[in-house]
Amino acid sequence: MFMRNLTVVCAIALATSPLLADESGNGDTTERTSAALPERLEETGERAPMEPPKSSAETVGDIDISSNAFGIGQPATEEQISAIDIDVMPDGQGLPEGSGTFADGKTAYDQACAACHGSDMEGVSELGAPALLGGRGTLADESPVKTVESYWPYASTLYDYVHRAMPLQSPGSLSPDEVYAISAYILGRAGIISDDPETTLDADSMAEIEMPNADGFVEDPRPDVGGNE
Amino acid sequence: MPNDDKFPATRYGPAERHMAESLVEIERQMLADPQEEDCDCKEGMFNGLTRRGLLAGGLALGGGALIGGRAAAEAPPGAVEYYVQPDPTKEQGRLILQDGGYGSRSQFESEVRWRYPTASIESSWSMTPLASGHGIITPSGLHFERHHAGIPAIDPRTHELILHGMVDTPMRFTMDDLKRLPAVSKIHFIECSGNGLTEWDEPTLKTVQGTHGLTSTSEWTGVRLSTLLEMAGVSDGAAWILAEGADAAVMTRSVPIDKAMDDAILAYAQNGEAIRPEQGYPLRLLLPGYEGNTHIKWLRRLEVSDKPFMTREETSKYTDLMPDGSARQFSLEMEAKSVITFPSGAMKLPRPGFYEVTGVAWSGRGKITKVEVSADGGNTWQEASLEGPVLPICHTRFRLPWKWTGEQAVLQSRATDETGYVQPTLSELVDVRGLNSVYHLNAIQSWHIAEDGEVTNVHA
Fold first, then answer.
1. Mean pLDDT computed over every residue of chain B
2. Which among A55, A146, A222 is the nearest to B180, CB-wise?
3. All domains of chain B, ordered by start, with CATH?
4. So what's the ipTM on this one?
């Protein structure tokens, strides 16, 4: 409930006034998880303006504004890049070392994936987890079924996405061996590769997989509808 | 399930079907919620869309966040409940800086984003209340959201952007670095290509927030991507660039290098202040006119390549399935579209008389040059006035004075952009693309006005 008493409001306003909070702003000594509180200028008490952003470049270097040389930023090292360069491309570029079998994939799938996607990869709609299998040959039907098996054009995308963003509650937690194994299990169950328990996927074999809908995608032809003046 | 016929399990897939069913049910509940705040002052115009109704909908959908907000103060989200003087001319108002130096909206305003009831709360979207919007700018707190793995809280002091791949010098930038580089400010809309996905088959959602609320306009400030690419030196043969976010989805999309060099912006500000967390704080890729999913939020990495990366979002999602079973890929530009926001669905016109018909139009290919309005379902058209500034790739406000006689009417708007493209009808779209393409519905929207003033979403 709002306080109507003006004197009380005044007292509160004074007590919490930033003008009296001069001890703030020493962000070096206190660990903060949000911005430092405003600092004040002496005498006038104005809020200090933000500090000019600092370039991370070690030296200013040669500045040639007309050719976009600003002496700002710094070269990225191989180590810095490889720490976050996780994407995998259809030709296999980016696939890491390691391997996994269909049989290991079943174990890993049951543990990490089945709770949402179902033990038979049928999907669990209440959780928003789509089916992974089925639907082949339905894409031109009135009710198409889009799954990894029926729709995804590249096996690399399966590796990339499982490694990148799955499982939902602990994304990025699966090792390369586990992702290869889970991929082998899903693609084996889909009949895209052999479902022999010893079937193994690694960087080389992954890149060679041909997905059923690999040729199913066309360039955007728009504008395809709509008048033209 | 009452909607088995409407959302056949096979066509929608289990997740989409569940989504659509929940959506219809929750909107029904929201609109049917008992209106404790009904009063004569409403004039019946915004039937069902009161604050309490919206909050009830939000509570049902959003879980704990709003419960906390309600418990803490009896004010709508984004507002503070202040004492209301019986006569504000007879006593002093509240004191300056009582808000701590950052203002909030009036406690008498309650418009909020509305969460689409996806099965997963982590992967969900919220929609802009277009009906109550004015002008062309969307308030930052009402800008639509689409997250695939929640909203990360990222410390800008440790956030970095790495640019690598087919470049002469791979580069690393801190947020400070980016803010030191030459900046641009541009006003652009962002529209999710899933905007309207419930509306292909039949009119499904009732309000313009539900049918069109996945588009919003902000002023975005940042550094041109071309500036960074020129600093790093792009190698011959480069054709695509991967953009990657730092959220739990580690969201990725491939972008043609020509677009990256043309008008792409690495935005750190929105509407004059730091970009909002749910919009990508501290850094978002802005690709003017491209579908919203490509505007990667929480941007951490850019990799230049000669080929597209074929990420999950550009293969299994955000591709448009055609009746012949082929799917269109990299359908990136958002085509011209418009919608009347007043009058619009679930409103009730109180009585015949004068109304200013108004709405927004936009095109991913440039400026809007014309918006026509029909009150008879498209038989006759009248040109609306466009309110300046008319900016490229930006919401454009249109207005047309209209006299409602009290007879049935079907209001429509039709946009034309500077390429000469004219917004199509739904049947023209469906004739070519069928009913399974999900994305990129930009058809003319129809609002039926009944003799009692009730406004409903129809296909006409």
1. 89
2. A55
3. 9-115 (no CATH), 160-328 (3.90.420.10), 337-458 (2.60.40.650)
4. 0.87
